[in-house]
Each structure stands twice: as structure tokens, then as C-alpha cells.
UniProtKB/TrEMBL annotation:
<dbReference type="InterPro" id="IPR013216">
    <property type="entry name" value="Methyltransf_11"/>
</dbReference>
<dbReference type="Pfam" id="PF08241">
    <property type="entry name" value="Methyltransf_11"/>
</dbReference>
<dbReference type="InterPro" id="IPR029063">
    <property type="entry name" value="SAM-dependent_MTases_sf"/>
</dbReference>
<dbReference type="GO" id="GO:0008757">
    <property type="term" value="F:S-adenosylmethionine-dependent methyltransferase activity"/>
</dbReference>
<feature type="domain" description="Methyltransferase type 11">
    <location>
        <begin position="44"/>
        <end position="128"/>
    </location>
</feature>
<protein>
    <recommendedName>
        <fullName>Methyltransferase type 11 domain-containing protein</fullName>
    </recommendedName>
</protein>
Length: 205
């Protein structure tokens, strides 16, 4: 099977189908947290990007106060959203300032591992709860290289698609990071039978 091109991938994520799958993931995050209804919440998204993966679903919810941090400003225009351009290695927030910290598809890009560890500790420090999403090691379609059954390929060969190094850890490795001590880990098929995510969460009872 030939992997889809980047152009196909970019077009796909603009379709209503992709919004459907993102909505499924958004609903899962809400369920893990215990629901957002009738709650005044402060939520931080680390690596918020364009906001289309999560923040934009709540543009009419004045009960939620969003803060997003990223190295790039995508110009999110949303009344309940505040953006800070910064590196998540040192977050300018008080301990446990946010009810929930989320991050979708960021942590697998953070290198070296020492920096990744610092960011994870910062997430744990500023959040009373957190839900992190990274690609699972068993995903059929690797979402960055768009490769099918990428685990079986020789990655020492010249790659058709150039990309930054990726952190692909097994399910039991992520909780070994200091900031993820005591976290729960579960797999979630973001796109059934094709793209599998790993959900790392800590939500106090």
C-alpha cells in the first residue's frame, strides 16, 4: 500500500470527517476529566497550534477560560482564549493554577529527552489535572511520515519524508517520567483501525 501524500493528509484534516474524529477525541478528554458542563474551568493547552484540535470546539462557552502556549502564534481569535508565545520548558504560572492541562500531539516532538522531562514536570506543576495525547507505538498509520506499518520498516534507509526526530515510547515508558508518576495510560483509536493514540492522564478523584 502506498502511503498518502502530505497534500492528501492536509486536505483530509480540513474535511468534516476529520472534525468528527477530533470531536470524538475531545469528548473522550471531557469524559476522562469528568465532564465540563456547568463548571467554571481554567484550561491550559501546551502546544495549542491553531486551536482546531480542541480550543475551537468551546468558542461559545464562557464558563471556560483558555490559555494556550506555543512557539508560534497562529492568530487564534476567540473571546475566551489568551495566547502566550513561549517555550513550555518554563511556564510562567503558579503551582496548580489550572484545573486542567492538555496537550495533543506535542510531546512526541520534544528533544532532547532532558527537555521533554522538564516540560512534563512543568505540566504536572501547573495543572491540578492533565490529559496528554501522543501517537501510540502500535498505530497502523504513522501520522507524521504517513507511513503504513512503519514499525516493520528499516528506518536507517533514506526517508522519502523528512521530519524531526520523534519520541515513540512503549505504553509503560511514559509513566516513568517524573511528572507522569501515577498517571493512567490507555490506547484510543483516533481513526479506528488506522491511527491509534496514547492517552496519558492524571485526574484526582
Amino acid at each position: 500500500m502506498v502511503p498518502p501524500s502530505r497534500e492528501f493528509h492536509d486536505l483530509w484534516w480540513k474535511t468534516s470527517f476529520s472534525k468528527f474524529f477530533k470531536n470524538r477525541r475531545k469528548n473522550l478528554i471531557e469524559k476522562i476529566y469528568g465532564g465540563f458542563s456547568n463548571k467554571k474551568l481554567k484550561i491550559l493547552e501546551v502546544g495549542c497550534g491553531s486551536g482546531k484540535d480542541f480550543i475551537s470546539f468551546y468558542d461559545q462557552n464562557d464558563q471556560i477560560e483558555f490559555t494556550g502556549v506555543d512557539l508560534d502564534d497562529y492568530g487564534i481569535n476567540q473571546k475566551n482564549f489568551k495566547f502566550l508565545k513561549l517555550d513550555a520548558e518554563s511556564l510562567p504560572f503558579k503551582d496548580k493554577e489550572f484545573d486542567l492541562v492538555i496537550s495533543l500531539g506535542l510531546l512526541e516532538h520534544i528533544v532532547p529527552i532532558e527537555k521533554l522531562s522538564k516540560i512534563i514536570k512543568e505540566i504536572d506543576r501547573v495543572g491540578k489535572s492533565y490529559v496528554m495525547v501522543v501517537p501510540a507505538v502500535n498505530t497502523i498509520l504513522e501520522p507524521h511520515t504517513k507511513g503504513i506499518f512503519w514499525q516493520l520498516k528499516d528506518h536507517n534507509k533514506k526517508k522519502k519524508y523528512k521530519h524531526a526526530p520523534l519520541n515513540y515510547f512503549s505504553d509503560d515508558v511514559w509513566p516513568n517520567f517524573e511528572g507522569f508518576a501515577g498517571a493512567k495510560v490507555k490506547r484510543f483509536w483516533h481513526i479506528p483501525f488506522l491511527v491509534c493514540d496514547l492517552i496519558i492522564s492524571k485526574v484526582p478523584s
